[in-house]
């Protein structure tokens, strides 16, 4: 009985313990499930779906890969707001952060008469002290250094662009130079149109071939001194020897008045500064109309002085009426000097001095001079102008010459120096200059010179023709004309290579001779010699072969004494076919050498420039155009 009672008691205790254990386990499972569901719901509501939740007893394990460290911390905070933060176990990882992209390096150099400043972001590898020293060496102007640096390697083309910018600023007294890797943009002001052209040519010539160069150079209107207009009507018709205007509207009015008076050729007025009066157009129109009423002669403006010269034989009453009306009609600031030449006495011999300039540069002085001293002065003056070995003097001394004869003779010799060839005839009444010039503005320049030297009442006649062949600039072929000439050469005989090599075939050497002859006449042009192959063989091999062939062509040009400092050789391999590679003819077409001009990138209109806008503009590619020179031999 005692044993049975003990057994029953023990069994009861065991059953109770088992029931308690089961109840405890059920409670723990309920807590785990509730915690896991609550945290997962909270994470989903916060769009942290990448986080994984797993309950481990009373602990809550967070796993998964967080995109960023901030999101990992946010997931811990969200879980801690649902359960006790001490129960949260962090087993999350953070995704590897990609290498930070290097910044876009750029610099902007500003130069004016007050000094030079440079601002921007440059690589730490750039020798900053050497760069500032380079700017300091060009002038005594102070240099303001506003540069920042970043510890990243310099991108390709950065050092070349920066070196070119430093050298370019030296010749640009008023300029803004923006530099990015492989690109330089220059905005500058030139003193004149001629200086602008010279500046553009010099910068383009000095730029490395691979550099993308953008030029935006402006030139102010020239200052015309004296402000001159000369309109002539004679047996050769009506024409301008010189014409100046202050605005386009004034130019149009003056040219319209000249056409109404009988002008048949081109009418052009130089627009510039220095006009003596806002009523310049009114005075010019009135004077040209008065000359047209006389029928022949000339009218010359030198600032506010107006000289109206009638033709010999003009009726005296007509001359008096026209000049009287003109004097009353001219604006107040203008002064009129009317001249009616006397008809010469045919019985007297000609009192004249003649100087001739031959195309070869030889000068002869003939005619009358006032004394022996004047003959020596004229001879010395001519030798100073044209060279000691180029002057022959055959003038004779005549004592009864006009008082101003010596000054007129020297003025005529100096005027002759404006021509490439021609003659000047000096008489007591007029100076006549005829000949040819390679300067398009020679007529206006001579007219301005004679008007300033001879005085307001003097008369002169200018018959100067512009000859393009004498113009040292216009006579050079344009880059486009050079392309056309090369295209014509290679259309007759292409450049061939020995099979599988970069050696030019002997049959193409004459073609290279002809191309070299053209390039020697082209002056400084930026040229890219491109090599291309077909698709046979490995791509790397074709790229290497095309580069070698382009360099071979460049070396052949150097051997023929062609200046190739502005040329670059570049191989493109099989990347730019011009025909299908599935036939012999197509492959033959793709095996070629091409010559392309490299032109400066056109600039956008001037605007507020920031470092960001300068950097964005560096994505613009250069314009490359040109004819093709074909080659062969990729078998």
Largest β-sheet summary: 7 strands, mixed
Can you identify the CATH superfamily of the largest domain? OmpA-like domain
Mean pLDDT: 82
Number of domains: 5
Q: Could you give the order of strands across the largest sheet?
A: 8-7-6-9-10-11-29
Report the top-level CATH class of the largest domain. Alpha Beta
Distance between the termini: 115 Å
Please tell me about this protein's structure.
- The chain is an alpha/beta fold.
- The chain folds into five domains: 24-94, Histidine-containing Protein, Chain: A, CATH 3.30.1340; 106-218, hypothetical protein tt1634, CATH 3.40.1520; 228-339, hypothetical protein tt1634, CATH 3.40.1520; 353-470, hypothetical protein tt1634 (3-Layer(aba) Sandwich), CATH 3.40.1520.20; 479-630, 60s Ribosomal Protein L30, Chain: A, CATH 3.30.1330.
- It is 38% helix and 25% strand.
- The protein contains 16 helices and 31 strands.
- The strands form seven sheets. It has a seven-stranded mixed sheet, with helices on both faces. Strands 19, 20, 21, 22, 23, 24 and 25 form a seven-stranded mixed sheet that branches. A five-stranded mixed sheet has the order 13-12-16-17-18, sandwiched between helices.
- Mean pLDDT is 82; it is low at 603-635.
């Amino acid at each position: 009985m005692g044993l049975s009672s003990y057994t029953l008691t023990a069994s009861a205790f065991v059953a109770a313990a088992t029931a308690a254990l089961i109840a405890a386990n059920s409670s723990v499972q309920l807590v785990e499930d509730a915690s896991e569901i609550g945290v997962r719901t909270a994470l989903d509501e916060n769009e942290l779906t990448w986080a994984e939740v797993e309950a481990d007893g009373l602990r809550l394990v967070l796993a998964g890969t967080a995109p960023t460290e901030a999101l990992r911390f946010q997931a811990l905070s969200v879980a801690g707001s649902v359960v006790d933060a001490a129960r949260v176990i962090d087993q999350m990882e953070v995704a590897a952060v990609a290498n930070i992209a290097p910044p876009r390096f750029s610099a902007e150099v500003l130069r004016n008469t007050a000094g030079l400043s440079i601002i921007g972001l440059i690589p730490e590898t750039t020798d900053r002290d050497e760069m500032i020293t380079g700017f300091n060496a060009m002038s005594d102007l102070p240099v303001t250094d506003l540069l920042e640096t970043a510890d990243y390697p310099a991108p390709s083309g950065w050092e070349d662009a920066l070196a070119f910018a430093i050298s370019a600023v030296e010749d640009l007294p008023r300029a803004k130079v923006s530099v990015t890797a492989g690109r330089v943009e220059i905005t500058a002001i030139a003193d004149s149109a001629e200086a602008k052209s010279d500046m553009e040519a010099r910068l383009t010539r000095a730029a490395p071939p691979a550099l993308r160069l953008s030029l935006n150079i402006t030139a102010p209107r020239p200052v015309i001194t004296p402000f001159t207009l000369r309109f002539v009507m004679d047996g050769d018709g009506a024409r301008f020897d010189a014409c100046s205007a202050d605005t386009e509207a004034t130019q149009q009015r003056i040219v319209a008045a000249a056409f109404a008076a009988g002008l048949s050729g081109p009418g052009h007025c130089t627009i510039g500064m220095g006009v003596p009066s806002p009523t310049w157009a009114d005075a010019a129109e009135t004077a040209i109309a008065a000359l047209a009423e006389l029928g022949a002669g000339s009218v010359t403006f030198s600032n506010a002085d107006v000289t109206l010269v009638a033709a010999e034989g003009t009726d005296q009453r007509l001359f008096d009426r026209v000049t009287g009306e003109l004097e009353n009609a001219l604006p107040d600031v203008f002064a009129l000097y009317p001249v009616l030449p006397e008809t010469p006495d045919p019985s007297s011999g000609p009192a004249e001095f003649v100087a001739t300039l031959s195309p070869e540069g030889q000068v002869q002085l003939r005619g009358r001079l006032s004394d022996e001293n004047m003959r020596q002065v004229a001879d010395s003056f001519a030798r100073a102008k044209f060279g000691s070995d180029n002057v022959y003097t055959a003038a004779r001394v005549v004592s009864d010459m006009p008082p101003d004869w010596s000054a007129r003779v020297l003025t005529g010799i100096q005027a002759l120096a404006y021509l490439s060839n021609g003659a000047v005839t000096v008489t007591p009444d007029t100076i006549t200059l005829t000949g040819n010039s390679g300067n398009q503005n020679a007529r206006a320049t001579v007219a301005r010179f004679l008007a300033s030297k001879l005085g307001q009442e003097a008369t002169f006649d200018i018959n100067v023709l512009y000859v393009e062949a004498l113009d040292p600039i216009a006579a050079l072929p344009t880059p486009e004309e050079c392309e056309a000439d090369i295209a014509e050469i290679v259309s007759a005989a292409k450049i061939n290579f020995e099979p599988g090599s970069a050696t030019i075939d002997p049959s193409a050497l004459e073609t290279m001779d002809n191309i070299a002859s053209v390039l020697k006449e082209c002056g400084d042009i930026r040229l890219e010699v491109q090599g291309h192959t077909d698709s046979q063989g490995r791509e790397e091999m074709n790229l290497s072969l095309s580069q070698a062939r382009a360099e071979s062509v460049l070396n052949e040009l150097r051997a023929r004494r062609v200046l190739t400092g502005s040329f670059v050789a570049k191989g493109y391999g099989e990347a730019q076919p011009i025909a299908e590679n599935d036939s012999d003819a197509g492959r033959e077409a793709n095996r070629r050498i091409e010559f392309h001009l490299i032109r400066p990138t056109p600039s956008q209109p001037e605007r507020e420039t920031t470092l960001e806008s300068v950097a964005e503009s560096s994505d613009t590619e250069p314009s490359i155009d040109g004819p093709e020179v074909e080659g062969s031999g990729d078998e």
